Amino acid sequence: MEGMLKPGSLKDKTIVITGGGTGLGRSIGKYCLELGANLVITSRKKEVIDKTAADLMQETGGQVLAIPADVRKYEEIENVLKQADQRFGQIHAVLNNAAGNFISPTERLSHRAFDIIVDIVLKGTYYTTLAAGKNWINKKQGGTFLNIVTTYAWTGSGYVVPSACSKAGVLALTRSLAQEWAKYGIRSNAIAPGPFPTEGAWSRLLPGDLVKKFDPAERVPLKRVGEHQELANLAAYLLSDYSAYVNGEVITIDGGEWLRSGGEFSHLEAIPDDVWDMIEKNRK
Ligand code: HXC
Ligand code: NAP
Fold it and tell me: I want to staple 53 with a disulfide (CB 3.0 to 4.6 A). Which of 64, 99, 138, 151 is the partner?
């Protein structure tokens, strides 16, 4: 639950975080500031990012620039990057974190509902990546992308199909550019978090009484959800130069959740000790 990297690990690095005003983006941003980074946060709601910027500057003493933008609008992303360059001189890393999601049987979705998730998650990520990558390549400087996906990017999942399709695309983007843009000194990695409580995710994925019926911790072999600092530690490492040789990787941080859903006999944890005693006695 403590910060992992040594003080100054991100000193003078400028990091752009999409969706940086709330939830996991905010927590990762706060830790980056504590490690000496300058932060640029962006999302649609100006009042939210303005308040986060003011709070984080007060809490950490770091510099935060808040610029409203919709990641679905390429010109708005270009404007964020331009202003970030003007203010801090150079951008070193981009955290593609903005997302939209909801649960629904797929056959109940309108095509517009599918579009809206793909547009935010996949298009928003490749717009931001394209704009930042072109900027770095033109200026002959390197950079680091870190993309937040989730484990159903590779397992798929019912009831969140637009998000699963989009996150799978983001993972393909991560691995593809790790190969293509390494020659420009640009690294691309991803993190696949399991359940980390945030207002944004919980309100949309466990609305109403669902939160009482489906405790996300129950699905996790470690029997708990993640702590934001645990994720922030991993993210800060992947954004820092300590991970300079990590490229094209997706690191899962989910307490073993996704493997558990595939382990054919893992449900045997429901068998109590006295039954195991009996099985052992019979065997002997
Ligand atoms: C079905 C829905 C819907 C829902 C909206 N729509 N909500 N369909 N179920 N719950 C449909 C609408 O009817 C409409 O289609 C279309 O989607 C657009 O809806 P709007 O309300 O106009 O969109 P907008 O106001 O832009 O809101 C976007 C949003 C919203 C994605 C729907 O939830 C949002 O702003 N989310 C941002 C933050 C977020 O989602 N955070 C959670 C990330 S958690 P029609 O046809 O009616 O026009 C996450 C976790 C992953 O990703 C892994 C967890 C383990
Ligand atoms: P969150 O607080 O709702 O974060 C989503 C952010 O994206 C919000 O700040 C939102 O701000 C921004 N956003 C949405 N649409 C946008 C748009 N069109 N343009 C710009 N910004 C936009 O939820 P979270 O849980 O922290 O999620 C953060 C990331 O973690 C997401 O990529 C999510 O898929 C991933 N994730 C979360 C969990 C979890 O358990 N929490 C698990 C796996 C993966 P505005 O509304 O102001 O635009």
Answer: 64
